[in-house]
Amino acid sequence: MYLNAITAIKNGLERKFEKIKVPYSKNDLAVLELLSKRGYVDSVSRKGRGIKRIIEVKLKYSNDNPQISGVKFISKPSRRVYVGYKELKKSHQGHGYFVLSTPNGIRDGYEARKEKVGGELLFEIW
Predict the structure, then answer these.
(1) Phi, psi of 66 (to 5 degrees)
(2) CB-based burial of residue 81 (10 Å sphere; 0-12 exposed, 13-18 middle, 19+ buried)?
(3) Among positive and negative, which fits the CA dihedral 29, 6, 78, 51?
């Protein structure tokens, strides 16, 4: 699940790792590719075949500081939070993103407002 992948990234950044590996899932790959597109991680690649598939994430730093300052998980397995596109606000005065699971796939808040689609609010990253 995406919770484990994001937590592994946070822990890797705190330990100043160059790369981390997380188990493969389509949802995790979509979330990590979105983070790569928005500049929070350097690159994401799928490795292995069959049951031994993993996702290798190259972490990104700026001036020896992690690119990700913080993450707040909003939806959890015990509590799902759904929002419409009109209810989406800017995260951290425009310096962060909300990540949503929509019928069109994994989107950030900006893309969801642009496409006028809502969904499950997964987490906020800045």
Answers:
(1) -60, 145
(2) exposed
(3) positive
**Going by CATH, does the domain composed of 71-125 fall within 3.30.1490.10?**
yes
Instruction: Report helix, strand or coil for 90.
Output: coil
CA distance 57 to 109: 23
Q: Which amino acid is at 97?
A: Y
pLDDT in tens, the chain (126 residues): 899 999 999 999 999 999 999 999 999 999 999 999 999 999 999 999 988 999 999 999 999 999 999 999 999 989 999 999 999 988 888 889 999 999 999 999 999 999 999 999 999 999
Report DSSP state, residue 14.
H
d(CA 91, CA 68): 14
Task: Give, in degrees to the nearest 5, the angle at Cα 90 between 14 and 69.
Answer: 10
Ordered by start, the domain boundaries in the chain are 2-66, 71-125
Judge: domain 2-66, CATH 3.20.20.20.
no
